Amino acid sequence: MELDDAYANGAYIDGAEEFPPRWARAAAGFREGMLEAGLAELDVPYGEGARHCFDLFKPEGTAKGLLVFVHGGYWLAFNKSSWSHCAQGAVEAGWAVAMPSYDLAPEVSIAEITHQIARMIPEAAAMVAGPIHLAGHSAGGHLVARMVVPGLLPDAVAKRVKRVMPISPVADLRPLLKTSMNEKFKMDESDARAESPVLQQPLDGVEVIAWVGGEERPVFIEQAAALGEAWECDCVIDPGKHHFDVIDGLQDRDGRMISRLLG
User: Fold this and answer.
1) Beta-carbon neighbour count of residue 248 at 10 Å?
2) Model confidence pLDDT, tens digit, residues 27-86
């Protein structure tokens, strides 16, 4: 398809095949440590499906608030268990972190995945008091951006959402109609428009920070910039980072990413 190469990440990252097993090992190690400390609740249900659950990682003492992190994988791959280590920086900074799994295409549509995340956030919000911040990577960046569009979250929960960081987001889904991935997404033009944050506006009072690696494929830099323009928000270009390591900053409580996300 016309745009397959433009949206291909792994083909342009040295050692791309090493990243998923590395993520899985780091995530398992972090989960084990949090379980041993009595600071993790795993597989908390938010629906009836096998993938309708989230992990909650808690800091020592009272949490400052709740961070929800939504993983990527083009709505086609992965689950929460590959990303647990991405909670490290926020937990060390005193925040609780919820990480959901969700059903994948082609079993469900992207619109249904959006609604699954909208059902999950209130469940996590009921477990942790205080402000709610959202972050997501790639397809997860799309999903957290959608969460701050009016009408998806219950009003009481939406009022607690103070900041959202879509990391390397797919903010305009219309170009995906020209990729072979759409054989699984099964979107038409109307579907793509309805799920594109760049064609919508965020809730009042929510700070939005788009974030993207400086070494990413040009379309991802363009996607983040388009969200920044449409939503009149900051678009941070992280120098030297590509699509797979741009999320490393989530592990560093003293780093720039965590400071912007939670500070």
Assistant:
1) 16
2) 999 999 999 999 999 999 999 999 999 999 999 999 999 999 999 999 999 999 999 999
Conformational region of residue 205, where left means phi above 0, alpha means psi within -120 to 50, and beta covers everything else? left
How far apart (Å, rounded) are the C-alpha atoms in residues 190 and 241? 33
Residue 24 has what DSSP assignment?
A: H
DSSP states of 103-124 as a string?
A: --TTTS-HHHHHHHHHHHHHHH
**What percent of the chain lies above the pLDDT cut of 70?**
100
If DSSP codes are grouped into helix, strand and coil, which group holds residue 210? strand
Structure tokens at 249: 């900053």
Cβ count near 6 (within 10 Å): 15
Strands 132-137 and 96-100, by their bridges, are unpaired
Q: Cβ(204)–Cβ(248) under 8 Å?
A: no
pTM of the entire predicted model: 0.98
Crossing angle of helices 139-147 and 110-125, rounded to 10°: 60
Q: Which residue has the tokens 């305009």?
A: 172
Torsion angle, CA of 220/144/104/3, rounded to 10 degrees?
-20
The pLDDT value given to residue 263: 87
Tell whether the model's pLDDT for residue 249 goes beyond 90: yes
